[in-house]
Amino acid sequence: MAKGNKSGHRRFGNIRKLPSGRYQASYIAPNGQRRPAPETFARKSDAEKWLTLAEAQILSGEWTDPERAKVKVGDYAAQWIEQRAGLRPRTVELYAWLLNKYIVPHLGGVALGKLSTAMIREWRAMLLGSGVSTTMAAKAYRLLRAILMTAVEEDKILLRNPCRVRGAGTEEAPERPVLILLRNPCRVRGAGTEEAPERPVLTVAQVFELAERVGVRPVGNIRKLDSGEFRLRYRVKNGHMRRFPQTFVTRQEAERVLWNLAEDGHADVTRDDRLRALILLAAFASLRWGEVTALKRRDIDLVNRAVQVRGAYIEQANGRMILGPTKSRAGLRTVAIPDAIVPHLVAHLTKYTKKDDDALVFTGIKGGPLRRSGFNKITRWKPVVEALGVPNLHFHDLRHTGNTLAADMGVSLRNLMARMGHDNERAALRYQHRSNSADRAIADGLNALVQAAQEQDGDDDDGAAGSLVPVA
After folding, report:
1. What is residue 248's DSSP assignment?
2. Is 69 exposed, middle or buried (CB count within 10 Å of its CB: 0-12, 13-18, 19+)?
3. Euclidean distance between CA atoms 413 and 463, whole angstroms
4. Are 50 and 59 in contact (CB under 8 A)?
5. Helix, strand or coil for residue 279?
6. Torsion angles phi and psi, residue 299, rounded to 5
7. DSSP 3-state assignment of 35?
8. Contact 370, 251 (CB under 8 A)
9. Cα(first)–Cα(last) distance of the chain, in Å?
10. Is 204 in contact with 398 (CB distance < 8 Å)?
11. Each residue of 369-392: pLDDT tens digit?
12. In this predicted model, what pLDDT tens digit does every residue of 391-435 receive, in sequence order?
């Protein structure tokens, strides 16, 4: 029969001799549970050393519960994602995809306490060796590192984070430098940096022209022939349909020619103004795609000439549309708008928006939330911006344009950040209540720019702003 310590012989823990002659050590943990050593010892002194180390960990605050360390990586990681408050739906979707794609198949069944740096280094090498890109491997590694950091700092399951592979969290792991020179002679300031290309900024006139162009559609049809080529027919100004004299290898080539025919006035066009106000708001109110598509009738204040941003739509990979929070806390804001775009908003609300306060201002063809793919298909964005002379223009560049125009007004950084909905060390939230008058000054300044551009276009013999102009 195994015998325990005699009363009073040990201050911490318990050692007993088993019938086999080996020694078993155990102690009462801070949580009140008795925790035995994971193995028995051949000598009593070895058991005593183990208890001394366990006591030192408890006194230093470094003790972790060995039973909790038995939880599997996959189970802990799934719970970690589920319990992370404040994550945007798209971020949750990305984390779950990375976990199930790269982490769970290889490390999901491993107990947290069994993870080691060597094991994680081998896992990363296996990913790269199987064709996973450096970028994806780095993202998976950073996710695993963040999960295990919670196990260390918050849950006290691990003593240290085993994700300690040098350079594994970067997209391109740098090679360790070879120290040959005492001083690097390459000391030309800025010579080793690569600046991201500047995003295009539209003029006020270009914003209005784009708002007009996104509603223009050339009238014609493209049919695939038995030969595999494509035939183009288009409607001319007198209403008659004509066949283009040559066929095309791809549908894209035929579509490009059809748009060119509309640009030079040979093909008739139809006009749809349902997206005009969306373009103007995105630019002159500096709204993100998710913000402008989430606007409801009650968010448009025509009397005070302002738009209230309350949330943003997010489209998940499975196509599901979710109305979530703004990108940051500062994204919840009220943005003043120029007087010049108010008539366009009034016309849109009257013609395209339902009467109830919760009705979406901008919708898809079937009345649901406007999707990015649907927008690009309806507007034929690529040929439109090519005809505008800005072929690389993205929708987000409209917000960039609005931010740039507002910054040119000379307002303070805090007021500008409040208008844009940026949160930099809580500065935007702290000073947002001070920005009302400055925000109105921004809108009034934008309004003056719009009026000046419209007056200049009115004096131009080429016609009103927004008319189709031939592009070479």
Report:
1. B
2. middle
3. 39
4. no
5. helix
6. -85, -10
7. strand
8. no
9. 99
10. no
11. 998 888 888 888 888 898 888 988
12. 889 999 998 888 888 777 766 667 677 777 766 544 333 333 444
- Both tokens of residue 5? 């310590």
Backbone dihedral angles phi then psi of residue 344, each to the nearest 5 degrees: -70, -35
Q: What is the rounded distance in angstroms from the CA atom of residue 256 to the CA atom of residue 218?
A: 11
Q: Is residue 292 a contact partner of residue 399, using CB atoms and an 8 Å limit?
A: no
**14-36, pLDDT tens digit by residue?**
888 888 889 888 877 776 778 78
Question: What is the C-alpha to C-alpha distance for residues 253 and 248, in angstroms, rounded to an integer?
Answer: 6
H-only helix segments in 154-219: 204-213
Check residue 184 and report its DSSP letter: -
With beta carbons less than 8 A apart as the criterion, state whether 217 and 269 touch: yes
Structural contact between residues 363 and 378, judged by C-beta atoms closer than 8 angstroms: no
- In whole angstroms, what is the distance from residue 2 CA to residue 336 CA? 81
Q: What is the spatial distance between Cα 255 and Cα 139, in angstroms, rounded to a whole number? A: 39
The span from the CA of 307 to the CA of 300, in Å, is: 5
Is the entire prediction scored with pTM above 0.70?
A: no
Longest dimension (CA), the chain: 110
Question: What is d(CA 24, CA 47) in angstroms, rounded to the nearest whole number?
Answer: 7
Residue type, 187: R
Look up tokens 């006194």; give the residue: 59
